[in-house]
Amino acid sequence: MITGSQKPINEIIELIEPYKKVLILGCGTCVKTCFAGGEDEVAVLASALRLSFSKMARSIRIEEQTIERQCENEFIQESASGIVRNDAILSLACGAGVQAMAKRFEKEVVLPGINTTFIGIQEGPGVFTEECSGCGNCELGTFGGVCPVTRCSKKLLNGPCGGSQNGLCEIDPNTECAWHKIIERLSTLGQMDNLKTYIPPKNWNTSLSGGPRKLIREDHII
Amino acid sequence: MKALSHLHEKLAQGKFAVTGECGPPRGANKKVIDNKIKLLNGYVDAVNVTDNQTAIVRMSSIAASAHLVAAGLEPVMQMVVRDRNRIAIQSDIMGAYSLGIRNILCLSGDHQNFGSQPDAMNVFDIDSVNLIRTVKDMRDTGKDMSGFDLDGPPQMFIGAAANPFADPFEYRVIRLAKKIDAGVDFIQTQCIYNLARFKEWIRQANEEGLTQKVYILGGVTPLRSAGMAKYMDKKVAGMDVPEDIIKRMDGVDKNKQADEGIKICLETIQELKELNGVHGVHIMAIEWEDAVAEIVEKAGLK
Question: Is the ipTM, as predicted for this complex, more than 0.95?
Answer without folding.
Answer: no
